[in-house]
Structure formats: structure tokens, C-alpha cells
Amino acid sequence: MSEASQDASSPSGREIWIEKYRPQTLQDIYGQEDTIERLQSYVDRDDLPHLMFAGPAGVGKTTSATAIARELYGDDWRGNFLELNASDERGIDVVRDRIKSFARSQMSRDHDYRLIFLDEADSLTDDAQSALRRTMEQFSDTTRFILSCNYSSKIIDPIQSRCAVFRFSPLSEDAIRRQVEDIATAEGIETTAEGIDALVYYADGDMRRAINALQAAATTGEVVDEEGVFTVTSTARPEDIREMVGAAVDGDFPAARAKLATLLDDVGMAGGDIIDQLHRSVWDFDLADREAARLMERIGEADYRIAEGANERVQLEALLASLALDG
């Protein structure tokens, strides 16, 4: 456990747990073992190239960047580490001004280079990326860049070719379960096995989602159980999704429509969230391959229409109706 993980002295709910339990070193990070091992070798040699971290949200990209800085610079890490979020500051002026100003500032004699961490770099405009490429070349002797993005394809090739690319995959269920159980133990929270399973299901590979859901569930009851987790996250139980789809496939559209209404009105789910759960659960419905393929096609069509602004309820009912008519 990290130093932050061991500090559980404050009352439950008084701090944001994703920050309180953020790993302080690379070895404290749950999951991503192969990636962490390669990064650790760079740190041990103190020979860091430009890095690019690509992957979905909540899988350890930002945590890895700050952990590298802590291990390289120790207590001086904040003075040698500049963090920028490109989604908020997308223009070319950010690259020209803030990054260049930091790269040009006087360095400590104890270190050969500084780190600049650019989060959500795929939000940078093409002009800003071109400016960033030139800046990376200009200050390569004294500065190393770590770029974080969800989609590496949105980063121009000249930048990608200058970086060692690390792809972070969604975290395993085991990694999320271990982290959640450790935090619950540190905070003195009583949990049930079904509650932990519900947190893992809701997280879907995203550690941030799991920890935030744990903190929310811990403030609403004495025990974090399955019902509490699904309530605070407005998530449908897998069996409810399975029952809704099963009724539609069997041709019982009124029953499927009634279950959908329950999820939208009583559970309070958004249409996009129902689409996401349907997509995750397609292969758990015990459907024939042809039926599964047809369901996937309908899900994709409904997802596109909802994203374009169509009415969620109409599109979801149309999805169930098409399954019932084909059934």
C-alpha cells in the first residue's frame, strides 16, 4: 500500500478518495504490470525518453506520470514537473508560452532534465501539435514530455515517432477488486461480496469509477452491498438487462417495454447508459450467434441516433420492437 493508502485517519467521506489513495510510486499502481515494469526500468536508469500514454479513462495514465516524477525528483518533484490539461487549454499559445517558459527556466544542478505532462493531448489542435513537435525538438536536452491521450490516432505522426508509446488497457476485475477491498479495509467500511462484485461491474475497467462509487455507497449506509451500489450509481442489475432483452427476443414486446420503462423512470438511468450496458452484456444473453449479431447491429444504430440527438426512449423502444418482430 502507498503512503496515501495508509493515511486513513480522516473521517469517511471528508476527502476525495481517488486523490487520497492515489498511488505514490509505480509499484503501488494496481494492474498494468507489464507497462509498469517497462516504465520502472527507465526510472531506475534515470534515462527517460519522451513518453506517450494511450488508453481509456481511469486506468493509471496520470498516476503513472506523477509517480515517475516523484521517483525521479523526490521531494523536489513539483518544481521539476509541469502538468497541463490540453482539453482546457487547447490553443497554440499554450504550447508557445507556458511550455516554453517552463522549459527555459533555470534547472536544479541535481537533475539533467525536467518533465512536462500534457494530459488529454489528443484535444490539441493540429497547429498546437505542430508547435509542440518543434518545442520537443528545441528543448530535448533539458526537457522530457509525457503525453496522455485516449486515442493515439489523433496525435500527429511526427510526435508519435518521437515518443515511446505505452498502451494502457482497461483494468482487470481482479485489480479493481483488490484496490476497492484495500480502501474499504483502510476506511473501516463493511462490505459484502455482492457489493464488491457490483462495484467491479459498474467500474468496467475504470478504477476512478470504482473508487468514487465506493465512497458514494459508503456515505449512504452502514454496509456497502449490491443494492446500495446499484442505487447510488443508477445502474441496472445485469439480470434486469438480460430479462428485458430476453422478453424482446421471445416476441413479448409489452414486457420488454415495461422493463425499459422501469429502468428509465424508476432506476433513473440515461438512455446512453442502457446502451452501454446492453453492449457489454450481448454475449452474456445466451443468444444464438445470428441473434447476437442482430442485437449488436440494433445497438449500434440506436447509439448513433441517440448521440445525434434523437429521443432516447423512442430509440430504445424501437430497438426492442425490432428484436420482438424478428423473434
Automatic annotation (TrEMBL):
Domain of life: Archaea
A GO biological process held by the record: DNA repair
GO molecular function: ATP binding; ATP hydrolysis activity; DNA binding; DNA clamp loader activity
Stretches assigned to the AAA+ ATPase domain: 47-172
Residues given in the record as ATP binding sites: 55-62
Keywords, in A-Z order: ATP-binding, DNA replication, Nucleotide-binding
InterPro entries: AAA+_ATPase, ATPase_AAA_core, DNA_pol3_clamp-load_cplx_C, DNA_Rep/Repair_Clamp_Loader, P-loop_NTPase, Rep_factor-C_ssu_arc, Rep_factorC_C, RFC_lid
GO cellular component, one term: DNA replication factor C complex
Keyword Nucleotide-binding: yes
SUPFAM superfamilies given in the database record: P-loop containing nucleoside triphosphate hydrolases, post-AAA+ oligomerization domain-like
Family membership noted in the UniProt record: Belongs to the activator 1 small subunits family. RfcS subfamily.
Xref: NCBIfam families: PRK00440.1
Subunit architecture: Heteromultimer composed of small subunits (RfcS) and large subunits (RfcL).
Reported function: Part of the RFC clamp loader complex which loads the PCNA sliding clamp onto DNA.
Identification of the protein by name: Replication factor C small subunit
Provenance organism: Salinigranum rubrum
